UniProtKB/TrEMBL annotation:
Matches recorded under PROSITE patterns: MADS_BOX_2
Compartment(s) where it occurs, according to its Swiss-Prot or TrEMBL record: Nucleus
Residue spans crossing the bilayer: none
One Pfam family per UniProt: SRF-TF
InterPro entries on file: TF_MADSbox (IPR002100), TF_MADSbox_sf (IPR036879)
Lineage: Eukaryota, Viridiplantae, Streptophyta, Embryophyta, Tracheophyta
GO MF annotation: an example: protein dimerization activity
Organism of this sequence: Cicer arietinum
Coiled coil feature spans: 98-125
Keyword Hydrolase tagged: no
Entry GO CC: nucleus
Protein name as annotated: Agamous-like MADS-box protein AGL62
Residue ranges of domain MADS-box in the record: 11-71
PANTHER family, per database record: AGAMOUS-LIKE MADS-BOX PROTEIN AGL62, MADS BOX PROTEIN
Keywords: Coiled coil, DNA-binding, Nucleus, Transcription, Transcription regulation
Amino acid sequence: MDIFKQKKKNTGRKKIEIKKLEKNTNKQVTFSKRRSGLFKKTSELCVLCNVDAAIVVFSPADKLFCFGQPNTDAIINSYINGTTEFETSKSIGKSISYEEHNTEYEKAIQNLEFEKKKLEEYENLTKVWNSGEWWNDPIDEMSIDQLEQFMASIYELRRKLVDRAHEVVMMLPMLV
């Protein structure tokens, strides 16, 4: 049998039954995924068909999420006033596109990952320094953050030594 002629059998996407979710965590996850898809599709509809649209959604945790093209306020105000005219000069200045929000989100995710790595480094340093003999580590290979932590540890050790020496000096008259 030829390997290249065999087709891989997979299930692909499955149609799910549309029914109310019971678990709150499942509701939140589903809401987050579907909300982003809904906003993306609405953005595409606005661009492709040159239409104005607004979506206002409350999450299962009662948080408000809005999307609007040119912006949500302008569309809602025009609906309330019964007009199809938008205050374009004001709304364009305030309007932030879906792509710009995605860019901000990606930057925030990158910052979060960077901070997680820094936290992991600090935790590793703490483990090494708490294991003993951290004062024998070479300082030439340390980063600035590591040097600052090292210096703080040295000062803390010095303070504890001075306190302990003071305690011993105070106990000397009692021992004599």
